[in-house]
Design a protein that fits this description.
The chain has 416 residues and is of the alpha+beta class. The chain folds into three domains: 1-51, no CATH class; 53-195 and 368-385, 3-Layer(aba) Sandwich (Aminopeptidase); 200-366 and 388-411, Gcn5-related N-acetyltransferase (GNAT) (Aminopeptidase, 3-Layer(aba) Sandwich). It contains 13 helices and 18 strands. It has helices spanning 54-61, 75-82, 92-101, 154-171, 209-212, 218-229, 241-257, 265-275, 321-335, 351-358, 375-384, 387-398, 401-411, and strands spanning 4-6, 17-26, 29-39, 45-52, 65-68, 105-114, 119-129, 137-140, 175-179, 193-195, 198-204, 234-237, 281-288, 291-301, 304-312, 340-347, 363-366, 369-372. Strands 5-6-7-8-9-18-10 form a seven-stranded mixed beta sheet, sandwiched between helices. A seven-stranded mixed beta sheet has the order 12-13-14-15-16-11-17, sandwiched between helices. It has a four-stranded antiparallel beta sheet with strand order 1-4-3-2. The protein is globular, with a radius of gyration of 23 Å. The protein starts with a strand and ends in a 5-residue tail after the last helix.
Length: 416
């Protein structure tokens, strides 16, 4: 067993030597791993860990690639912070959120190590997603608006992807789905089918908001912001779970209106509990007469703020609460020293949302999804354009809220 150095923060009363045995499940086979921790007099910890027998098979396939657990390996989040592609959904917190919210997901983090320094050189986070409807698959990374393999060369990407194929075979998954943004140039395209049906809109915060506003569409954006500001809307920054509940009610109503099931409440609660203490998640609410009429969830990491989830009450559309919240969010991002404001991921089929985002003076780029094997891309497209998909949309618009929540809970047991 290889023992590697780690930095480890201990609580009072923790013994200086102990063994932890944990049991998990992989494809109905019991898997155990040991973690043996030795502390020197300075409190530096040394421990090795191995999965029986998954990690050893990965390492036997390629000795340069290994699996790590980001929840206990302090090098992981530090690597995400330092990597130019690192985003909030790469952090160990996102793994905690997904595995806490969705029982059909389990994370496997493939890393290339620098053997001399024992530091991470490149990484590919993957999640096993089990579904008898959508298929048993590996996804990097579920429910992430922005997602990249954390690599710096095509050679590292190839090495990690070969290990991902081996992992897929061990877990008996049907296909692999890798979502990219800035890393796409390091993908060897002939190995994948590429889906370019999602776009990313972003605003570079290079000037003060009032100057940036001059680049916004005059009638569709600037006039609506002015209307909102003259309509006595008030901004509230969420402080507790009651504000999260207010947001979720508005958001669920918006999803119903457009014919989509909402994500389960536990997903939002997990995000709130795990990300909001560090202000990596912020809820903005627009209130009219002390009544919440629109909501927006922001992610913040490094120099980037992203508008991730938004909703509004249709009764108040004439006072443009969505424009009010996005304008306030842009001002907050600028005042806190951020360089980029993201409008999130959008399907090219959603022309209304594409138009809304393009009218804020944004730049647009593709978010390629890479499918392996290639035939899976066609199946995914056919599924979204299927009759059953359209029937589900019509059903979501008509059912009571309690039934809509149940549909959402069922649907998201298969998505990712």
């Amino acid at each position: 067993m290889v023992v590697r150095p780690y930095t480890y923060v201990l609580k009072e009363g923790v013994p200086s030597l102990w063994t932890v045995r944990v049991f998990g499940w992989v494809e109905k086979r019991k898997v155990s791993f040991h973690r043996i921790i030795f502390l020197d007099i300075k409190g530096r910890a040394y421990f090795g860990h191995f999965f029986n027998d998954l990690e050893s098979k990965i390492m036997n396939f390629n000795g340069n690639v290994t699996l790590i657990d980001p929840a206990v390996d302090t090098r992981w989040d530090a690597y995400v912070e330092s990597h130019p592609f690192g985003w909030i959904t790469h952090l160990s917190d996102w793994k905690r959120i997904l595995e806490k919210s969705f029982q059909h997901m389990k994370g496997y983090y493939l890393v290339l190590m620098d053997k001399r320094t024992e530091s991470i050189r490149a990484a590919l986070p993957l999640f096993e997603v089990k579904s008898w409807i959508a298929g048993h698959r590996l996804v990097s990374i579920p429910f992430a608006t922005l997602s990249d393999p954390l690599v710096s060369s095509q050679e590292d990407m190839e090495e990690l992807f070969d290990a991902a194929i081996h992992l897929s075979k061990e877990l008996k998954t049907k296909h692999i789905e890798i979502r990219t943004f800035r890393s796409f140039s390091m993908i060897k395209e002939d190995r994948f089918a590429i889906d370019n049906s999602f776009k990313h809109h972003y605003l570079t915060l290079k000037s003060e908001p009032e100057i940036l506003m001059r680049t916004f569409h005059r009638t569709c954006t600037r006039q609506r912001i002015a209307r909102a500001l003259s309509s006595n809307l008030c901004l509230k920054i969420g402080q507790g779970e009651l504000d999260l509940v207010s947001f979720y009610k508005i958001y669920s109503g918006t999803r119903k209106r457009i014919g989509l099931p909402p994500q389960p409440y536990i997903f939002f609660k997990s995000m709130w509990e795990i990300l909001s203490p560090s202000r990596r998640l912020v809820i903005l609410l627009a209130e009219k007469g002390n009544r919440p009429v629109a909501g927006l969830i922001l992610f913040r990491f490094k120099d980037r703020v992203s508008a991730e989830y938004a909703g509004s009450n249709e009764e108040y559309k004439e006072v443009s609460p969505n424009h009010f919240l996005f304008w306030e969010a842009i001002k907050i991002a600028y005042n806190e020293g951020c360089k980029l404001f993201d409008f999130g991921r959008t399907s090219v089929r959603n022309e209304t949302l594409m138009d809304f985002k393009s009218r804020w003076g944004t730049e647009t780029t593709s978010l390629p999804i890479c499918y392996y094997p290639k035939t899976i891309c066609e199946e995914a497209t056919e599924r979204e354009e299927s009759i059953s998909y359209r029937i589900m949309g019509a059903l979501c618009r008509r059912v009571p809220d309690s039934v809509l929540a149940a549909i959402g809970n069922f649907s998201y047991r298969h998505l990712g």
